[in-house]
Amino acid sequence: MSSLHSIAVIGGGAAGTAFLAAYARELSADSTALPADVYVFEPTERFGPGVAYARDTLAALLNRPMSAMSVDHNDPGHFRRWLSRSASRRHTAVLPTPREAMPVFAPRVAFGNYLEGVFRHACDDLEHLGARVTTVRDAVTELTEEHGVYTVSTAGGGRFTTGSVVLAVGSLPPADLFGLSGAPGFVAQPYPLARSLQSVDGADEVLVLGCGLTAIDCALVLSEQGRRVTLASRSGFVPDVRAEATARWDDTEHAFGAHSLASSGSVRLADVYSLIDTHLRDRGTSLRHAIRPYAERRPVPDLLRSRLADLGPVGLLQRCVTGMTPAYSALWRALPPEDQQTFLRKHNRVFSCVRNPMPPENARKLIRLADAGSLDFRRGITGVREEAGGGFTAAFADGSSTRYDRVVNAVGRTIDITTAPEGSLLRALSRRSLVAPHPAGGVRVEPATNRALRPDSSPRTGFYVVGDLSSGVHFHSSSMEYVARQAARVARHTVNASGRYELQAV
Q: By three-state DSSP, how is residue 142 classified?
């Protein structure tokens, strides 16, 4: 590739697909914009799903309702309509026909198929708009810039020059907290579950590191295969149970107050909590009451039973924090750095449990498995070591230790690029100062455009970041609706910055 009027999209998963779809929409809406050729780099077998939504077991469900999973943030029903059409054509038990009850939480594999279809249609749209789209099934290992020209190098030896880059690689692999990488029986990356967990023996005692949504997916798959599983983390907190699957993330009732607070200038963490508490008190509860279940430290099965029986206060809190989503970026940037660090260190785990709750169906499954004795929950894990004769021993804060045959690393997303593996693209970008690490994680970007910032805080022309790696600036960038909004912002900026056709009379 040797064209400065081109865009290199590094990452052909959900974020890259959302950008392609948004770029096609923006081009079609601007009749004078010159289309740029597009090159998409993705090392996995399919363009669209990426690693996160690759072919997998049907037991792994999306934790977000279908209305929150569209690649077009202005069309929240896009995924649901696709799912309905797909079910009508295939008549499968997995995707019921529209005459039946459409599941609120679809399998992750169904969303991967959706992304693959969106990717294909976006490429077709761009071709018809005059842009050539080339897919490169290879990993990008190096990116350099000189005088506004970017050179992309791949693992297979390819070299490409371009005028614009969209970095859409998602988050880093889960952190190896206890240095177990390479140990027999250690699963470093759980997704796709069907592939990573297939070697687990039926008699194995399995330790899953983490108690979040990824860990729950692992536990459900392993337990349904007859394995005995322990979920263990430092805090022991599990995601809340989703109270209202139809709640919209752009709820203006809650977002208005958050936007007003963010625009007031200096904001402290206490101000944000006061805003949430005021909304809850107007509805007969309080922030303290809503988060009480996490302070009481009840056994997880009992907590889940209580949440399924009465989702009242925390359900209101879920709606409130979801409705505030459009204001997250502005609120986060208005907080002083010390408040950002306090939140990440002390409060983020509980917030994540409320902001990213599990489907009620999964909560019921966890209770049944715990009651049957095939699933246990432990908190206060302090270490895991590999044993010379095979297996692992986990140590806990109460002084106890337990032996396990297998360990699955499901601690969740990592966005600290300073921990990126040697030889990785992110390590190379950081070493060359093409990106600047953000103290709260990810890389520093210009809020209005998502252009990457240099270490001196100046924006880098033609270099954009979409997705998790912008979380240090925008705070919550992992949900699909937020990724879609970022993708639209970047697509609009690339079209506005592109060349123009000369207007001619017809």
A: strand
